Amino acid sequence: xxxxxLAALPAQGDDRSTEILRYECRTDVARRETTLFANGTIRLxxxxxxxxKMGLAELAPDKLEGFxxxxxxEDLAEAKSxxxxxxxxxxxxxxxxxxxxxKDLQTFQLGQYxxxxxxxxxxxxxxxxxxxxxxxxxxxxxxxAGYEPRPGDVLKHAGDGNRFRIVAFTSDGKGIExxxxxxxxxxxxxxxxxxxxxxxxxxxxx
Length: 206
Prior knowledge:
The chain is of the alpha+beta class and 206 residues long. Helices cover 15% and strands 36% of the residues. A hairpin with a 5-residue loop joins strand 9 and strand 10 (175-180).
């Protein structure tokens, strides 16, 4: 369910600390937060709660103006509560905060799988675009050079550090099924994305 709150516009501050948009999602163990500041800085915090990694990126003035225009074009006053989706410990719960120059602060609470009104969906998509512009420094450690996954391999998940065991491959050989050791969850990861999702081979069955 999305909830809209309005607050009075605070006094104008330094563009380096004035937030235009903040989109934060979290589960019971991990969170990610994308913030766009008025000077064009994008800050991304992502990872296990209490141990998040951070990255920064800068938008050129014309790019910043483009994003602000796209955000301003969405009428969130018409955004109604979405259809509520599945919930659970591993389903992200998100908060979207938007305060365009000269406008009131708007805050929405939403779930990862909620069915969103079109205007709100567009703003979430913009926040996700901003997130992709930031590179977070890679964690120490990596999968071995030339690593070829095998069933039974135990891998360390990027960000939260949880352990996952490879169970099987998809029928076309392009995907990998993994089961959580630390948390009861199953993942399906494209084989060519494995290095982006996992940072270490912890053990292998011989």
